[in-house]
Amino acid sequence: MYSLLSFVYASAPQWLYDILLIVLCVVAVWIFSCRKIIRIKLRRLLGVMYVEYLVLLMCATVIFRDSTCSLGVEFVPFWNYTYVTQEVIMETVLNIVMFIPVGFCSAVFLKRPAMLKIFLLSMVLSCTIEITQYCLERGFCETNDVMNNTVGGMLGYLFYKTTPMLLQVFHQRKYAYYGQNALA
């Protein structure tokens, strides 16, 4: 079984991870827009997808990562921002985007989601990934990744908090539009 999973995750192209991320976000927003009875059933689907996302996250960042990449530790924050290149910007954005589902889905499943809880959860998960990368010699362990991942988790939490308001505004505008067309 392990060899089958390792083949699937190792041979999966990057766009497969991207599609899973997009589907996860769409399902999460869809759950917010549904009625309460349907929402409870759809949370199970979101839970399964969230677990799969966490497995893919660990596979992409640690388990099936190439061990020939640069190794080392960097504890100085913002060390690679001295020379801002397209590569540095892309790495920063990807590290932030990678943890948005962590913040969003964790807030969905916590009984009383709070900013501090999501902050700590994102930071602990990111530190776990970075320490595991260092111990298994699967990448460069740096504080920038921890900071960027934590920012991504916080953005996911803010997305969780603003989604109901955005959906309410969307529904109000939709009904106002249909109401104007009904009068015409």
Can you give a write-up of this model?
The structure is a single chain. This protein has a two-stranded parallel sheet. By secondary structure, it is mainly alpha-helical. Helices cover 78% and strands 3% of the residues. The protein starts with a helix and ends with a helix. The protein is built from 7 helices and 2 strands; from the N terminus they run H-H-H-E-H-H-H-E-H. It has helices at residues 2-11, 14-33, 36-63, 86-98, 100-109, 115-135, 143-183; strands at 72-74, 140-142. The model is unreliable at 1-9 (pLDDT under 50).
Give the integer mean of the pLDDT values: 77
Main β-sheet description = 2 strands, parallel
Q: In what range is the share of β-strand residues?
A: under 5%
Shape: elongated
Helix content: over 70%
One letter per element, helices H and strands E, the order comes to: HHHEHHHEH
Main-sheet strand order equals: 1-2
